[in-house]
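batch_manifest entry 22 of 60
target: Helicase
source organism: Streptomyces finlayi
requested by: lab member K.T.
priority: normal
notes from requester: please return tokens only, no post-processing; we will run our own comparison against the previous entry in this batch. if the run fails, retry once and flag.
--- input ---
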Amino acid sequence: MPARQGSHAVWPDRIRSEVIAAIEAAGIKDPWTHQAQAAEHALDGESVVIATGTASGKSLAYLAPVLSALLDGSEAPNGRGATALYLAPTKALAADQRRAVKSLAAPLGNAVRPAVYDGDTPVEEREWVRQYANLVLTNPDMLHRGILPSHPRWSSFLKALRYVVIDECHTYRGVFGSHVAQVVRRLRRLCERYGANPVFLLASATAAEPAASASRLTGLPVKEVADDASPRGELVFALWEPPLTELHGENNAPVRRTATAETADLLTDLVLHNTRTVAFVRSRRGAELISLIAKERLADYSDRTLPRRVAAYRGGYLPEERRALEAALHSGELLGLAATTALELGIDVSGLDAVLIAGYPGTRASLWQQAGRAGRSGDGALAILIARDDPLDTYLAHHPEALFDQPVESTVLDPDNPYVLAPHLCAAAAELPLTSSDFTLFGPAAEPLLPSLEAANLLRRRGKSWYWTRRERAADLADIRGGGGSPVQIVEESTGRLLGTVDAEAAHTSVHEGAVHLHQGRTYLVRRLDLEDSAALVEEANPPYSTTARDTTAISILSTDETVPWGTARLHYGSVEVTNQVVSFLRRKLVTGEVLGETKLDLPPRKLRTRAVWWTLTEDDLDTARLTPEILPGALHAAEHAAIGLLPLFATCDRWDIGGVSIPLHPDTLLPTVFVYDGHPGGAGFAERGFHTARAWLAATREAIASCECDAGCPSCIQSPKCGNGNDPLHKRGALRLLTTLLNAAPDSA
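--- output ---
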């Protein structure tokens, strides 16, 4: 990807000369055109989203008007006449931004007082932040649980709130994005109560329809600045497909070398060549494993310091561990880092030479965000996408145009999801009694929910207002990260030491009894999962295998919202109830992935009401596709797996955000049926996106199966890593004929 020249402008004259002087003192003479445009909108009182590439200076675009406003305010009698709020999706990014602001605003003296306010902020500092800080950096979780419920203590801050910055706003998608959209509406409601009307400044990676996405998130009209005028060094982007091995996996399918092993090799080589590299990995366990393998391999070389210059970085670490790793990366002490997306967002990792991406990160937006971390000083850089043994990764390795010639995705979120909206209406009522004037703010789905909230004794109507009736905190009803329940604490059994946490919904699959858990390069075995006390007891061990949970799933249709005929077949969208139970786990050899054995588990089933897209086939369709009763279950099952694998190309989701079921004779449809559903209560918009892009989605699914070089199906096309039936039965050729028959009858508008 060739280098690009930059284009300069001048700062709007309404920005204070002291702020411009501070920016120049930081070595920035003139702004890029997009920075000046975004600042102009902010100064005009218009909410604006700046959607340009990584390292294009988005931070400066919103900091210039923010610092200017804070400087105006510092001349007020109490020294705080204007305030600003900065929201980041992660604690690490908020801490990083505070460092950047302190450095930039140093010439302005005490006029700008930035402070981080999150779960790590010591109690003794919190009162100072509320009273004196004029730029508060926090995250949506703290805004939801800590600031909004305590708004009387924040009244002087909220009264003076001029700007709200929402950084990395493309990350607010799916259920998490829907929750954050409601948190933002609650913030706007309280600001209005205190007489403030803040301007929202949003920063996003390059995105499709950034203004529309930002407007859905804030509930306000938003201007868009999307022409990136910053220069860029040359980027060499490699698509790397691991080779097939001599090994065979489930049902004798050929097995590729794992993306984890390939990434560890590449990271080792790059560190040996003194190349500063970050390897982005999908899972916490993967990050730990890559760091561990690279360290072991580097220990074989004469330079004994090299293993110490490689580390892992992921969520779930304690705050002091995270800060120490960030500092080591900044200083160059670390040469190689295996990181989860906790590091993807905005943290200024300057001076990187290369980025390794272990498996497609789920969206093109994320891919470019990660690749853009290399070459941040304008030099040339290297990015390598290492394909996993997965239908989507294989499809992309063989269809580079799907990455390089396509725009990034639209951000999918649904603030009207009743499972999201209801708890936020309760939280809003606890902050200030709800009235009919609030319905325009919370959207058309708000008023119809109130009778059910009254019936559940959560809200009580008095006169024209609704009040929160309980003693407990209303904010605790909504877990905005979508975890559904309190996080499970991972505790070392022998010492009682807390190692970290895992989301409640992931606990059944990741910390069940017998699971292998990695932390800071050390391996632990889970001895007991206590669901009542939300604790997993572990002890250090060194097993030669990893573990993968297996589950069973049943599905029933609650209602059908839309149906489209595809010849005699039908495509549907509506509400379903999914019953899921983790029943066993597999032990797999490290590096090769070979299955060593299966162990049964006794865990309770869990029910989920959500949204789904499904298609049904008739006898005529089965005859056309030559699907006999013997091969029909395998053909449906294979098509379901591949469709789940390819949906992330069309909706901003991950294959782990969605699930599927295929049944030769479903009791509700009385026909062969394939379901793909959102893995979140109330849905997240992913299945709906699949319904509306069904023709392109299923065409890519068919192509992914057809282009795979295996004979009878493998993890690169129709096998799934999370299949509850051990990938049995599967029928590759039957799935191809089934999808061809469906697509031949698809209407042009599908």
